[in-house]
Design a protein that fits this description.
46% of the residues lie in helices and 19% in strands. The protein is an alpha/beta fold. The chain folds into two domains: 28-123 and 250-317, D-Maltodextrin-Binding Protein, domain 2, CATH 3.40.190.150; 125-223, D-Maltodextrin-Binding Protein, domain 2 (3-Layer(aba) Sandwich), CATH 3.40.190.10. Strands 1, 2, 3, 4, 5, 6, 7, 8, 9 and 10 form a ten-stranded mixed sheet that branches. Helix 2 (42-58) crosses helix 9 and helix 4 packs parallel to helix 11. The longest helix has 24 residues, at 2-25. The termini are far apart.
């Protein structure tokens, strides 16, 4: 019996020493960040903005890989199923980590069980925009056109269960507007069709749309955040326009599979904070109208749990279920 206990203690000690050695050696090869969306959307832009500075902070190349599909859940599931060694990470977001699990009937991962929330990056408002040929320039005109079309006005999103999809659902629920939701496989292809006026309007993260808005290719009607964006000071919030209590924004952060060694998580979290302190990175994010998030790793994990619960309750109360 004593020999058995001694052996168990030795094995446990050996495992701890091995994990410590791995953490001290981490990273000794390139680190991959999976972006579960096509290029050009908010999540992809965020990953490619921080990746070079993260490479510098870690001393190893950080490679961004796009694995799109099923509203971002395919790439996110790959992260959940990867080895918990810190070499395969994901660019998590409200769309894939807290929104999709709240509305999909079945989903290949559990947001509370299958991930390690490594560190936050930024939050960003969503903007309601109109296509060039859509005959509106204000939210009031948008509402009038929507009522005239009685459900025929099409509004694009990055995909079923995405944060901008839920922002649209929340808008329809609180205003009783009838709109036709058109889900895409990411913001990039949706914006392409919006620019070509193949859809009437779009709900999208400001980061992906701001360039087209500034150049006058699409029209910003309202933002979904509590306050107006400094980048669009003339564009009102939906709350200002009479939709009391309306607020929807998105967050992004680095996530990994469950079971990552705590020391590796600490290294990655420190590297994220260091990368976000680089002035060129901060300036790039400022130009996109995002707010950098500064939280400890436990605070970030608690924030994500609370966000998931918020959207889960909204989906339940609004009977929003995606097959």
């Amino acid at each position: 019996m004593i020999r058995t206990i001694t052996l168990a203690v030795l094995l446990a000690s050996g495992a701890c020493l091995h994990a410590t050695a791995q953490a001290q050696d981490y990273p000794n090869k390139p680190v991959k960040i999976i972006v579960p969306w096509p290029p050009s959307g908010n999540v992809d832009i965020t990953a490619r903005t921080i990746a070079p500075a993260l490479s510098d902070a870690l001393g190893q190349q950080v490679v961004v890989e796009n694995r799109a599909g099923a509203g971002g859940t395919i790439g996110t599931a790959l992260v959940a199923k990867s080895a918990p060694d810190g070499y395969t990470l994901g660019l998590g977001s409200s769309g894939t980590i807290t929104n999709a699990p709240a509305v999909y009937k079945t989903i290949p991962y559990d947001p509370n069980r299958d991930f390690t929330m490594v560190g936050p990056i930024q939050s960003v408002p969503i903007v309601l925009t109109a296509a060039p040929k859509t005959p509106v320039t204000t939210y009031k005109e948008f509402v009038e056109l929507a009522k005239a079309k009685n459900g025929g006005l099409s509004v694009a999103s990055a995909g079923n269960g995405s944060s901008n999809h839920l922002a649209l659902e929340l808008l329809m629920r609180q205003t009783h507007l009838k709109l036709t939701h058109v889900p895409y496989k990411g913001s990039g292809p949706a914006i392409t069709d919006l620019l070509g006026s193949q859809v009437d309007a779009m709900m999208d993260q400001l980061t992906a749309s701001i360039g087209h808005i500034r150049e006058g290719r699409i029209k910003a009607l309202a933002v979904t955040s509590k306050a107006r964006s400094p980048l669009l000071p003339a564009v009102p919030t939906l709350a200002e326009l009479g939709i009391t209590g309306y607020e929807a924004s998105t967050w992004t952060g680095i996530v990994g599979p469950a079971g990552m060694p705590p020391a590796v998580v600490e290294k990655l979290h420190a590297a994220i904070r260091k990368a976000l302190s680089v002035e060129a990175v901060r300036e790039r994010f400022r130009s996109m109208g995002v707010e950098l998030m500064d939280m400890t790793q436990p605070e970030f994990a608690a924030y994500v749990r609370a966000d998931y619960e918020k959207w889960r309750m909204l989906a339940k109360e609004g009977n929003i279920v995606i097959e």
